[in-house]
Design goal:
The protein has 260 residues and is of the alpha+beta class. The protein contains seven helices and ten strands. It folds into two domains: 70 residues, lambda repressor-like DNA-binding domains (434 Repressor (Amino-terminal Domain)); 112 residues, no CATH class.
Length: 260
């Protein structure tokens, strides 16, 4: 969603805050620096360059699931003409062969410069967001217990007593079947809008999207999972049928934890 009464940068900042993401979170996902994110949110596009700033805004809008075309159109100031590159003739008397040499050299330099600019832009646009590798300290784990590890805290084991029998239903049956096959089940319930990013043991991204209030989601995969959950205070997390308290792993409004 976007609000035409707000500037491009203000719409990006509002979208980030709505998803419970910090400037550092966005910088890490887009492979930019916090200074560049602040420049985008303050409409300081001239400091980033016209080509790069449009590419950054496109990727930022895609991350926040905003209408990128509306934001890109708003960046084009009225009366702004496209930049052009000209070679002026200074009427310097030089030989024909020397003139041809310099013209070819200048043309080659221009082509190389344009190629490098487009190459960097495409790399920034298509660079994958790699999940951070989280170190875990070994600890004994009960056979059916869910272990929740905060970064960089030590793993926290669930109580050793056997879990209470889950109520009959599709969710419980799915969780038991997945666990028996070596997989695990994550269930989420959203009281308010929140952003979720989860990767499995093979560093394969299971989900990365914004959920809305009242929605529920269930994921099955190979543990351990690394999870980042925005607006965590308004999200209920159940792992293999057991509720997980995310309060101890939440900083500001974002929870970062590992589910084993």
């Amino acid at each position: 969603m976007s609000d035409a009464s707000l500037s491009v940068g203000a719409q990006l900042a509002r979208g980030r805050e709505a998803q419970g993401l910090s400037v550092a979170d966005v910088a890490n996902r887009l492979k930019l620096t916090p200074k560049q994110i602040n420049a985008l949110e303050n409409d300081q596009f001239d400091s980033l360059g016209p080509v790069f700033s449009r590419g950054f805004v496109r990727n930022y809008a895609r991350l926040l699931q905003l209408d990128m075309q509306v934001l890109l159109d708003a960046m084009q100031a009225p009366g702004t003409a496209a930049e052009d590159l000209t070679i002026r003739d200074e009427h310097i008397a030089i030989s024909h062969s020397l003139s041809q040499y310099w013209l070819k050299l200048i043309a080659a330099i221009v082509i190389i410069a344009i190629g490098l600019t487009l190459g960097v832009y495409q790399w920034l646009r298509n660079a994958p967001t790699a999940p951070a590798k989280l170190a875990q300290a070994p600890a004994p784990v009960a056979p059916t217990a869910a272990v929740v590890t905060a970064v960089p805290a030590m793993p926290i084991s669930a109580p050793a007593t056997p879990p209470a029998e889950a109520p009959a239903g599709n969710v419980a049956a799915t969780a038991n079947t997945a666990t028996a096959a070596g997989s695990a089940v994550i269930d989420l319930h959203f009281k308010q809008d929140a952003w979720v990013d989860i990767n499995d043991a093979n560093k394969k991204r299971i989900v990365s999207r914004l959920y809305h209030a009242g929605e529920t989601a269930q994921f099955t995969g190979l543990p351990p999972f690394t999870a980042v959950i925005g607006n965590a205070a308004n999200v209920s997390l159940t792992y293999n049928g057991k509720p997980v308290d995310m309060a101890a792993h939440t900083k500001v409004s974002v929870a970062r934890l590992t589910l084993e």
